[in-house]
Every structure is written in structure tokens, then in C-alpha cells.
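Narrative progress, year one. The postdoctoral researcher (J.K.) led the effort to move from monomer predictions toward full complexes, under supervision of the PI. The following entry was the first complex the group processed end to end, covering 437 residues in total.
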Amino acid sequence: MRIELDFLSVLTEWPLLVKGVAWTVGLTSVSTVLGLFLGVVLAWSRVHGNLPLRALAGSYVETIRNTPFIVQLFFIYFGLPAMGLRLAPETASIIAMVVNLSAYATEIIRAGIEATPKGQIEAGKSLALSSGQIFTHVVLPPALRKVWPALVSQIIIVMLGSAVCGQISTEELSHAANLIQSRNFRAFEAFIIATLTYLSLSMALRRLLNWIGPRFLFGR
Amino acid sequence: MVDFSLWDIFRNLLLALRWTVALSLIAFIGGGLMGLLLLIARLSHSKLLRLAVNAYVQVFQGTPLLMQLFLAYFGMALIGIETSPWLAAGVALTLYSSAFLTEIWRGCVEAIPKGQWEASQSLALSFIEQLRYVILPQAFKISIPPTVGFLVQVIKGTALASVIGFVELTKAGTMITNATFKPFLVYSCVAILYFALCFPVSYFAKQLERKVQRGHA
């Protein structure tokens, strides 16, 4: 048999693809910033918090890490309205991505914080820095530098995971591919193009984050 | 309309959990066997093979599992294989697992001191003998914790098979939600079941890791 591939009829729908990429990039950017911030707060709670706070942060991390992203997303989008909290698909997607990233980031950042040499903290104390100042200026920057490669990988995993958000009709890249294939029935071609786009997005994102980290987050 | 009690919901989800477990095992075992072959190719002296395996790993780690599932589903139909969700999900998850396991195991092999390769080479062992008798047994020991940890990722990955119509735990949750209109309750139960499946595995992996680390200290 002959296999006929027709990529052109997918590519003529490029405005949809561009919009999808824009949504994927947007969702990823917002949830990376919020997720990392929440991850730092939770990592602090797991290391320096009192017992209830530590236990709370710990169970949050374990719950999220041991359930699939798609279930978390469905729970937020379909489950929460029953509790009176109705969310737009985009909002639900961002919440799910932030929740997911923050749980993984917590564990990664905690490992970095715990690797801080004691002398560093003592040196900070001897300079009369407050414990808050010690955390943000002495402990956190080298901790982030140490674990940055792991965080970058995790952020990429979350970006790839955002493909699932199309299932609740967030108009990101995989949703665009689905829409295109429902119009012209070129399913395989549409998903090949979406997949290759994801591949280049993940390679570009890795470069970008490796560039951003040392310059803006923890100094060279 | 039939009334669903909490037990009805839970029982039906438990029944669907079998398929989550079955699919996870297929993907994990299939992926393990294929990963081993890829690992041998990755370690071989042929540059072409090494590059090919590298590219394979890059592609599977750099694209969403959801897209891989769609491509398996529609791709097999395109080349004339009659696709079922079982086949497509099994193939996609096996390929996905093999890429990750290859990369995990490659790291373990690289942790083996170079002297071990040289010593076994000086004993005139062939490449396969070196792997079989010297390198892999040592790498095996340190590879267990991350491999068990990856099983959790496979179990969670099977949830995406629901999207191509594979009736496992997540899909069953969606179907029951459509029948009962109780999404909060049903998805809570689904999450609890995944947690009950994954948490012991993660915990076990963490314990194994401590053991290996203590062995090295």
C-alpha cells in the first residue's frame, strides 16, 4: 500500500499553530515563575518551618508527586466547580501547572538548601544578618545554582505536560493540532508537526533557562 | 437513572485499576527489555549507533507523551495496522519507557570506574563479555533505586492513555463522572487510588536509595 502524507494542508492552518505555540509558551512562562516562587516558599517550610508546617508541605509534595498531572487537572477543572469554584480552562491549566511544578521544585530546591555548608550560615549570622536575609542572600542563590540543571529539566517536563491542558479546551499547541486534524482529517501529519514543534520548544527552553539562571537568579 | 453509592464508584474504579496496573507492567517490562538493547547500542564502539540512540532518547524526552500516544494511534492506522487503544498505548508507553530507562542506565554505567573497563579488556574479554560479567552486574546494583522510581512515572504516564480511549483508572473516572455528576468525589477517589499505587513504590525507591548510599559511604 502507499502512504500519502500531506503536510501542506496542515501548514496552511499556520495561524492556529502560532496561536497554540503562543498559549503553550504563555502557560509555561507564567507557571514557571509562580511555580518556582511557590517551590522556594515550600522548600523553606520543609527545612525551617515548625512541625505542622513541615508536615503540611511534606504531604502536599507527596500527594502531587504521586498522582498524574491529568488527574490533578481534571480535579481542578471538573471537581472544584462542584465546590462552588468555577474556573476558566486557562486558569485551571495554570493552577494545575503551578501546583505540579511547585511540588517537584520543592524537593529539588530543598536538596540544594540542605547542601549549604554550615559555615556559610554562621558567617551570615556573624555579620548580623537576620534569618530572612541569610535565607535570601546567603543560602538561596548557591542552592539554586547547584540544582538549576534539575530545575530546568523539571520546567521542561511541565512545558511538555501542558499538552494535556488541551483536553479541557485550553487552546495550546496540542489543542491546535487536534482542531486542525478535525478540520482536514490529516491527524498523523498534524501531530507530527505539533510534536516537532514541542521538540524545538524544549530545546530552545533549555538554552534559554541555562542562559537566564546564572544572569538573573543566582549570579555567575 | 441508577443511583451510584460511594461503594459502587469505588468498586468500579478498583476494577479499572487492574488495567492501569497491567498497562504499567507491559510498558515497564517492554521498555526495560528494549532499553537494555538500546543501552548496549549506546555503549558500543559504533559512533553511528551511539548517535542514533542519543537522538532517540532526545526525541522521546523532548516531546510530550500525549503526542507520542496520538502518533502511535494514528500512525499505526496509517501503515495499515488495525489499531486498538491497547496496542497504541502499549507501543507508545513501551517506547517512552525504553528511552528514559536507557538514559537512567547509561548514567549508572558511567558511574562505574574506567579501570573496570580497562581491566576486563586486558583479560581479553569481548565487548559483550565485558558488559555481561564486569560492567552490568556492578551498574545493576546502583540502577535499582532510580529504575523503581521511574516505575512511578510510568504508572502516572498510563493516565494519558485515557485520552486515546483506553479504559483505565482515569478514563473510568471520567465515565463514572458522566454518569453520576459527582466530579469532586470521583476524581478524589481516582487520585486516592493513584496515590495508593504510587506512594509505596516511591517510598520503596527512596529506601533503596538510602541503602545504596550507605553501602558506598
